[in-house]
Amino acid sequence: MNDQTRVFLKQKFREYYSENPVYPPPELPDREWGFILFDETPGVAMRRHKSFNTVGELSDYLSGMAPRHAYHSTAYYTHPAAPTMVEKKWQGADLIFDLDADHLPGNFNSYSEMLENVKKEIIRLIDEFLIDDMGFREKDMDIVFSGGRGYHVHIRDEKVRSLKSPERREIVDYVLGTGLDPENMFVRSRMTGIWRIRGFDDDKKGSYGWNMRVARYIASKLQEIGKMPEKEARENLRRFGLDKNLKKVLEMARNPESYETILNKGLIELSPGNMENFFKNMLAGTIDDFKVDLAGKTDEPVTADIKRLIRLPGSIHGGSAFRVTPLVRDRLETFNPLNDAIIFSDSPVRVLVTKPQQVEIKDKVYRVSEGVGRLPENVAMFLMCRGCAEYEP
C-alpha cells in the first residue's frame, strides 16, 4: 500500500467514524482496547493496553485516529490499561466463538458462496448447540459479522464469565464431538440383540444433544441402505463393520418402524456379535455430519483464550472496507454481507489495479482487469484494503 492509498483510506475511515456509531461491549471501562493504524509500517504490532471510560472517548479516538482495525478485549479487567496481564487483574471474560469461511471443508466457486456456507454453520452453532444443547438465551448472545469471512458469537451469560481456559476448551470439544466414545455411547440391553443409545430413557421418548444426533445418523443411514439393491446394501453394511446376519439386518433396515424405534427410544435391534466396528463407524460418521466446522486451529484458541481481543461491532474491517455488523438471530437468514455490510458509496474512484480478479458487491459482479480505471468507491476500497489496487488521484 503506497502513501497516497493510505491517506485516501484513512480519510474515508475518518469520515465514517465521524458520522456513524459503533457498538462497544457492555462494561466498556473494564475492557482493554487495541488498534492497528494506517500509519504503521508493515510488521508493527497492534497498539494495545488502551482503555476508555465512556463511549464518547472511544468515538473521539476512532474519528481522530481512524484506525485500520479496532478491537476490544473479551475479558473484563480491574486495570485494563496496565502494561502487563498480571497488572490488569483479570475479572472474567465473555465466551467467544469465531467461525471463519477460510477453514470450511470443500471448495467454493465464489466469495459469496463461501460466506453463505459459513452463515449456515453459525446458524447451526447457535440453534443446535448454544441454544438447544447448552441452554443459552438469545438475549445473552451477540452475533456479529466479522467484516471479512466469518461470524463471531459473544456469550455474555454470567454463568460463563468466570470459566477458565480448560472449561472453555471442554465447550469447544463438545461442539466438535471430541472425546465421544462408542463404549459409552452404546449400551447392550438385557434383551438379546438389542442395543440402546445412552441418554435415551425407556420411560420417556426422545433425547437431545449428541445422543439424538447419533440416533438420527444411524436411522438415516439404515434407511438409505434399506432402499439399495441387495448386493449394494450388503456392501454398505460391511463398510460400516457388519459381517454377520446381514439378511436380518436388511429386513430391519427396510422396516420403517425400526427408524421410529431408533429415533424415539434409541433402541437398535441387531443380532449378537462383534458390534465394535459398526458402532465406531456410526459414531465417526455422526461426528463428521453434525459437528460445527469451527475455524480449524484458529477458533479453538479463540474460544479457550480468556484474554483475547476481538473486532469492535460497527467498526470497519481494514482488510475489506466492510462493516463489522452486529446482528440478531432472526436477521441471519436474510443477511447478505455483500449487500448489508457495504458502507461506502457507488461514486467512481480512480485506481490502479495490480491484481486482476472478480469482485461481487451489491448484487453486481465486477471483472476487474489490471491497469488504471474507475470503479465504484466500495469496490475500489475493497481492492485497496486487500492490497490489490492503489489509489490514483
Automatic annotation (TrEMBL):
Class of the enzyme per the UniProt entry, highest EC level: transferase
Q: Which organism is it from?
A: Methanooceanicella nereidis
Q: Which residues form a coiled coil?
A: none
- Active site feature: 98, 100, 299
Record-linked InterPro entries: DNA_primase_S (IPR002755), DNA_primase_ssu_euk/arc (IPR014052), DNA_primase_ssu_PriS (IPR023639)
Q: Where are the transmembrane segments?
A: none
Function, as annotated? RNA polymerase that catalyzes the synthesis of short RNA molecules used as primers for DNA polymerase during DNA replication.
Transcription as a keyword of this entry, yes or no, is yes
What's a single GO BP term from this record? DNA replication, synthesis of primer
Tell me the protein's name.
DNA primase small subunit PriS
Query: Could you give the subunit structure recorded for this chain?
Result: Heterodimer of a small subunit (PriS) and a large subunit (PriL).
Q: Which cofactor does it need?
A: Mg(2+); Mn(2+)
Keywords, A to Z? DNA replication, DNA-directed RNA polymerase, Magnesium, Manganese, Metal-binding, Nucleotidyltransferase, Primosome, Transcription, Transferase
Annotated EC: 2.7.7.-
Pfam families, per the entry: DNA_primase_S (PF01896)
Which SUPFAM superfamilies is this protein grouped with?
Prim-pol domain
Would you name any one GO CC term?
DNA-directed RNA polymerase complex
GO MF terms held by the record? DNA-directed RNA polymerase activity; metal ion binding
The UniProt family comment states: Belongs to the eukaryotic-type primase small subunit family.
